[in-house]
Amino acid sequence: LVKLAESGGGSVQTGGSLRLSCAVSGTSYSLYCMGWFRQAPGKEREGVAAIDSDGVTSYADSVKGRFTISQNNAKTTLYLQMNSLIPEDTAMYYCVADICPVPDIREGAGYGYWGQGTQVTVSS
């Protein structure tokens, strides 16, 4: 059973930065693709960033150049470094995982394991 636990959300002003973390347990980490989704009230869920078992990353166009996904060497912690935050980034952010391969995260589906979410609020 894969367990995912996010942390690091909070409130920042436009232009600020946050780093989200996701602690991963209960799996053979090397086999898993991982990523981050977000969902704002009244909006569809959006795949933000993903990293596969070889370390290849992908990003939604809306965050490319501002967000960076990474993981530690043991693959027990997933990160999302968020820079140049804007109010449109306000959402609940979820850490996700599943056995590779998975669909492109920008398709908005394909991951079976989800964390409980962490709130990010960006004020203007």
Keywords:
124 residues; mainly beta; 7-stranded mixed sheet; 4-stranded antiparallel sheet; 11 strands
Structure description:
The chain contains no helices and eleven strands. The mean pLDDT is 94. It has strands at 3-7, 10-13, 18-25, 32-39, 46-51, 57-59, 67-71, 77-82, 91-99, 113-114, 118-123. It has 124 residues and is mainly beta. The chain starts with a strand and ends with a strand. 0% of the residues lie in helices and 50% in strands. The protein is globular and about 40 Å long. The strands form two sheets. Strands 2, 4, 5, 6, 9, 10 and 11 form a seven-stranded mixed sheet that branches.
State the distance separating the first and last CA atoms: 40 Å
Number of helices: 0
| Biggest sheet features | 7 strands, mixed
Radius of gyration, in Å, reads 13 Å
- What's the mean pLDDT score? 94
Helix content: under 10%
- What would you call the structural class? mainly beta
Summarize the structure.
The protein is an all-beta fold and 124 residues long. The chain has strands at 3-7, 10-13, 18-25, 32-39, 46-51, 57-59, 67-71, 77-82, 91-99, 113-114, 118-123.
Furnish the topology, listing elements before pairings.
Blueprint: E1 3-7, E2 10-13, E3 18-25, E4 32-39, E5 46-51, E6 57-59, E7 67-71, E8 77-82, E9 91-99, E10 113-114, E11 118-123
Parallel strand pairs: 2-11
Antiparallel strand pairs: 1-3, 3-8, 4-5, 4-9, 5-6, 7-8, 9-10, 9-11
